[in-house]
């Protein structure tokens, strides 16, 4: 799998339909950033979803602490609006109606993120500095590519950043100093029609151990791990991952094989609580990681499905540890199966 890069100018790529032009209503652009304060089990999800066919946006800020955030309102702080006007864009700074600013001070390399809640309960002032190239990424969900065509000109990018600054939550100041991924999509057609993407739960597990080892993959659990989704979906003989890479110093390598094995599911959120990931890169080098969630939450970004964000503590075979987001998404057939599974466990 060849890994390519995008120019920094794509950070500000937010096209709108031309006069008289009609776009698929499910066309989206996105910006995602996140950060964590692992010692206090805090994670943050910062997201803007642009819907240019209308045009409108949705998004905002979710801050969660611990692993019991089952309802959206369980989170420590939530300011996420489903319908906002197109943001203000000025000199590289994107500002939403609910006060989130993403300022690309040097597109492709540096961004400043600022937010202050209207009632002053929460604020942050952060700088995100790139530590990897701006890597080109295709679609996020398997099957999504079926809804793209030459005229849509879809694209996406991923990048690890060093996130520094501070979070103020309910009067307490938390220094932020972590390595976190950011990503975005543009002109992707992400359909919400029921049954449009019949796929097992997909998990995204970026992790930064140091400049010599930065790993990223998105996959479903393969059948040989006896996943909870067995019997619900027919995945054929396709690989369990559809996008993965590893950064070894200055070298970016594609990943040829991923095996993600979930050891424990959250009893109410139903996402992976403990898991192992093994992988092989294009040179034949092998990798193995073991992880456990220290924070987890249900996130409102995609209301037609179940979407979870978390902070995972990862360990490699040499004892090095790191913390990063782990995100998982699935649709209702799987969710109902997990509810039945939880009920059986409760009555066993």
Explained architecture:
Pfam families: DUF7064 (PF23212). InterPro entries: DUF7064. This is DUF7064 domain-containing protein. Residues 202-314 form the DUF7064 domain. This protein is mostly beta strands. It has a single domain (26-191, 199-347), classed as AttH-like domain (AttH-like fold, Beta Barrel). Helix content is 5%, strand content 52%. It has one helix at residues 332-347; strands at residues 27-37, 42-51, 56-65, 77-84, 88-90, 93-95, 101-106, 110-116, 122-130, 135-136, 155-169, 172-189, 202-204, 207-210, 213-219, 241-248, 251-265, 272-281, 286-298, 306-315, 321-330. The strands form 2 sheets. Strands 1, 2, 3, 4, 5, 6, 7, 8, 9, 10, 11 and 12 form a 12-stranded antiparallel β-sheet that branches. Strands 13-15-16-17-18-19-20-21 form an 8-stranded antiparallel beta barrel. β2 (42-51) and β3 (56-65) form a beta hairpin. It is globular and about 55 Å long. The mean pLDDT is 94.
Summary tags:
single chain, 348 residues, mainly beta, AttH-like fold, 12-stranded antiparallel sheet, 8-stranded antiparallel β-barrel, globular
